[in-house]
Write a structure and sequence with these properties.
The protein has strands at about 5-10, 15-20, 30-40, 40-50, 50-60. Helices cover about 0% and strands about 50% of the residues. The strands form 2 sheets. The protein has a 3-stranded antiparallel β-sheet, with no helix packed on it. The protein has a two-stranded antiparallel sheet with strand order 1-2.
């Protein structure tokens, strides 16, 4: 798994990475994250300073109800 990235993971019996893009973040910087879910389409963007990254993913077996979660690793906070 990429260490500095924005990543989609789907939870079934276990978390499975399904889409990722590199994003070199810096400790102490502010970022704006936008997540949109519509039908079987997910889109996410992250922006901060002069950097940005975007993901788009179509789930072939989407959950029709549920929720999203945001997580950070390596001494970060959501």
């Amino acid at each position: 798994m990429m260490r500095q990235a924005i990543l989609y993971r789907k939870d079934g019996q276990e978390y499975i990475p399904v889409q990722a893009a590199a994003f070199p973040w810096q400790h102490g910087a502010a970022y704006t994250i936008t997540v949109t879910a519509q039908g079987d389409q997910l889109q996410a963007t992250i922006k901060g300073g002069d950097q940005s990254a975007a993901l788009a993913w179509q789930d072939r077996a989407p959950y029709r109800t549920g929720q999203i979660g945001l997580s950070c690793w390596s001494n970060s906070h959501t």
